[in-house]
Amino acid sequence: ASDESIRALEAGADEFIDANASTDVIMARIRNIVRRVHLQPGRGMEPLELDGLYIDFANREVYVNNEIISLTRIEYDLLYELVTNRNTLLTHAELLEKVWGPEYRDENQYLWVNISRLRRKIERDASKPRYIQTQTGQGYIFRDG
């Protein structure tokens, strides 16, 4: 990954397409974005409340200590996948495929940047995460206990 793509992701971009990307790659990424926008998971799910973290799935809202937290679509989708599979290891490739699409299975920097941002927003101490825990070299687990 280029430094430019990492800077764009850290600045809040959901997507980065290299200027040299083929038309096929660009179209595949556009189709994935459209698919993700139309598939709004969580409707009808009961909210989750854990020690000051409150997730209202029906409205795609996240609160920490009763304050609404602004999440990008990617951050919310990552949190949704982790929470709905809580206490289960989700590999890097699984998370990348579920949130970005199958052609992103090897784009680990997308995942690392967004997990880091998500931790800073929902964890009391992002350097010692309580909820989103790393399984080194494998993936992440959302712990609810």
Describe the structure.
There is one protein chain. The mean pLDDT is 87. The strands form two sheets. This protein has a four-stranded antiparallel beta sheet, with no helix packed on it. The protein has a three-stranded antiparallel beta sheet with strand order 5-7-6. The chain starts with a helix and ends with a strand. It is globular. By secondary structure, it is an alpha+beta fold. Helices cover 41% and strands 17% of the residues. It has helices spanning 3-10, 23-38, 73-84, 92-99, 108-122; strands at residues 48-50, 53-56, 61-64, 67-69, 90-91, 132-135, 139-142. A hairpin with a 2-residue loop joins β1 and β2. The longest helix is centred in the first third of the chain and has 16 residues, at 23-38. α3 (73-84) packs across α5. It is built from five helices and seven strands.
